[in-house]
Structures are given as C-alpha cells and as structure tokens.
Amino acid sequence: MTIKVGDRLPEGTLSEFIEVESEGCSLGPNTFNVGELAKGKKIAVFGLPGAFTPTCSAKHVPGYIANADQLKAKGVNEIWCISVNDPFVMGAWGREQKAVGTVRMMADGNAAFTKALGLDADFAKFGMGTRSQRYSMLVEDGVVKQLNLEEPGKFEVSNAETLLKQLA
C-alpha cells in the first residue's frame, strides 16, 4: 500500500553521515528514528532513485538547495533527501552537491523505510536492485500533507518549485 495524504509516516529509521560531531551525534553514520525526528516539525522530503545518478544530481538535489531559503521562509524546518544508498555514499554525495547544512542526506540502505512508504521500485533491469520511486512530500508532525509522485522516468512534480507552490 502506498502512503497517501493524511497518513502518518511509518515507523522506521534512516541513517545520516554526520560531518561535525555534536551532542548526541558522533562523526560518521548515525541512525535516527523517523517518528522522533519528524515530531513537531514541518519537513520537505524528497525521494529519488540514487546518489550520483544523472537527474538526481543535475536537477533534483540542486533544486532543493537553490530553493532552501524560500522553503524555510514558508515554515519548513528541514529538508530531507531519501535514497536507497548507504550513509557513506549519501554523505559523499551531499559533500559533492554542497548540500551539507542545507539538505539532510538520509540513507535507507536496505530500502526498509522506502518499502514501508510503498514507494519502492524495481531497478534490477538497470543493475541497481530495489530503489525508490521519485517523489516529494510535505510532512507536518509526522503526517503527510502533500505527496507528489512521479511517473516512471519523469521529473515534473517532485521538484522543489512544485512543493513551494503547494506551500503558498
């Protein structure tokens, strides 16, 4: 079953490569409970097939970085990029994209959270195994308020600009 507007995010964890050690977060991969992380926050979430892939690197992540200030001006507390990759790859990709401190690069290494959302996709024919469909959503206090799911191979509705318009 695919998550829909009005649903609460499923239970699960995501990992993030932390660049700077702080209280409660060590340097390197840290695992977070999604429910606890989303509590009391408005979060722009976008999911994509993979780190360092063409559309994801050239358009999807850069769009959220470029529009981060406008999203935050509309009340968004955090921006998450979720991909079925390990936290080391997501950390390296975040550094390469200059996303550190702007977009949280959240790893779903085994696709468990993506599957719980019902947004997994079979990319085996490309040699990539189970991946995420391309989507964006606005989550408030753990509840989905907007969901923009792309058709396979498309990049039309999961961009930052669409989510910004929905926040107006």
CATH-scheme architecture = 3-Layer(aba) Sandwich
Strand content: 25-35%
Cα-based radius of gyration, to the nearest Å: 14 Å
Number of alpha- plus pi-helical segments: 6
User: Any idea what the shape is?
Assistant: globular
Determine the CATH superfamily.
Glutaredoxin
Strand order of the largest sheet: 2-1-5-4-3-8-9
Largest sheet: 7 strands, mixed
Between the first and last Cα atoms, what is the distance in angstroms?
Answer: 29 Å
Given helix and strand content, the structural type is: alpha+beta
CATH C-level class is Alpha Beta
Number of strands: 9
How many domains? The number is 1
Low-confidence stretches: none
Instruction: Indicate the multimeric state.
Output: single chain
Range of helix content: 25-40%
Tell me, rounded to a whole number, the average pLDDT.
Answer: 93
CATH topology: Glutaredoxin
Q: Give me the strand/helix succession.
A: EEHEHHEHEHEEEEH
InterPro entries: PRX5-like (IPR037944), Redoxin (IPR013740), Thioredoxin-like_sf (IPR036249), Thioredoxin_domain (IPR013766)
Family: Belongs to the peroxiredoxin family. Prx5 subfamily.
Catalytic activity: a hydroperoxide + 2 glutathione = an alcohol + glutathione disulfide + H2O
Keywords: Antioxidant, Oxidoreductase, Peroxidase, Redox-active center
Can you describe what's shown?
It catalyses: a hydroperoxide + 2 glutathione = an alcohol + glutathione disulfide + H2O. Belongs to the peroxiredoxin family. Prx5 subfamily. Thiol-specific peroxidase that catalyzes the reduction of hydrogen peroxide and organic hydroperoxides to water and alcohols, respectively. Plays a role in cell protection against oxidative stress by detoxifying peroxides. Its EC number is 1.11.1.27. This is Glutathione-dependent peroxiredoxin. With 168 residues, the protein is α+β, with helices and mostly antiparallel strands. The protein has a single domain, classed as Glutaredoxin (3-Layer(aba) Sandwich), CATH 3.40.30. The chain contains six helices and nine strands, in the order ββαβααβαβαββββα. A seven-stranded mixed beta sheet has the order 2-1-5-4-3-8-9. It has a two-stranded antiparallel sheet with strand order 6-7. β6 and β7 (130-132) form a beta hairpin. It is globular and about 40 Å long. 37% of the residues are buried. The model has no long low-confidence stretch (mean pLDDT 93).
